[in-house]
Amino acid sequence: MEEKPASEPGETSVSETGEISHAIARVARAHRVTAGHLLRRIGLYAGQELLMMRLWEAGPQRQSMLIKLLGLDPSTVTRMVQRLEQAGFVTRSADPEDRRAVLVEATSAGEALRDEVDRVWQELERRTLAGLNDADQAHLARLLARLEGNLAAD
């Protein structure tokens, strides 16, 4: 891949105009909206599948740990858990090791969502990467990992 020469005096580079950050924001929003539409078909809102994935991978978790793992505001996770509980996908109970802590656990209905969530994520991946060949996909994955590293470093 050929690098562009430095901008000439008076020229504004793409990074200085914010075009890349705007494009990332637009893509992230479109990705989330598409995920939301696909997840709605199985009774979930965007983001709830990430919480469910944590429960499927690690079993029952303290709500405080889910907040930490998901990197979300405590009130957001509380609302998410409440909605999942109302839908019958999780239960909340006092942690037997610390009765002050809330333990969140997937129900059998929540466990049954696992294959459906996998199918939704496969469809989301298919739509997201449509028209990109394997080399483009690998290059995109490397670039996104670099951007994530840049942002996580701060």
Give your account of this protein's structure.
64% of the residues lie in helices and 11% in strands. 15% of the residues are buried. The longest helix has 22 residues. The model has no long low-confidence stretch (mean pLDDT 91). The protein is mostly helical and 154 residues long. The chain contains seven helices and three strands. It is globular, with a radius of gyration of 20 Å. Strands 1-3-2 form a three-stranded antiparallel β-sheet.
Please describe the structure with a list of short key phrases separated by commas or semicolons:
mainly alpha, 154 residues, 7 helices, globular, 64% helix
Summarize this entry quickly.
This protein has about 150 residues and is mainly alpha-helical. It has helices at about 15, 20-40, 50-60, 65-70, 75-85, 110-130, 135-150, and strands at about 60, 90-95, 100-105.
